[in-house]
Amino acid sequence: MAFQLLLNFMIAFLWMFLHNDWTGPRFVIGFLLGILILLGMRRFWPRLYLGKVWAIIKLILLLLRELVVSSYVVVKAVLRPEPNIRPAILKYTTELKSDWEVATLITMLCLTPGSVVLEVSDDNRTLYIHAMDVDDPAQFRANIRDTFERAILEVTR
Hints:
Layout: H1 2-19, H2 24-40, H3 49-79, E1 88-93, H4 99-111, E2 115-120, E3 126-131, H5 137-156
Helix pairs in contact: 1-2, 3-5, 4-5
Subcellular location: Cell membrane
Membrane topology: Multi-pass membrane protein
Transmembrane segments: 23-41, 53-75
């Protein structure tokens, strides 16, 4: 992936050099030309780096969406005259394997209001999560698996 990105930048700079025009628009044109060249050569690589870039963008947008939605839910729960919250500490077993993947999941869970990771097992497979309002623990676990964990796996694998 890094080689493809480096090659794309080299094509963009070569394009600027050939036109003797060192401006931003010329770089963008060269970069887009590099993407087209890499698309033409995609059979040489198992995965084009643009797929990973798109997965990273989707992960960031997912985190931003979850931040906004969970912030709204927390504010709504706190400002109620009679709060009806059901806090819970849940045991969550993750499918993620590398330390980076688990650390990213923990960070995303801690950044979203209403949940915090209390403990991580020694093998990095089990997380203990405190959640502010949990109706159904199985649904809460499935939500983590279907949103955060799936998006992290798209980026890393």
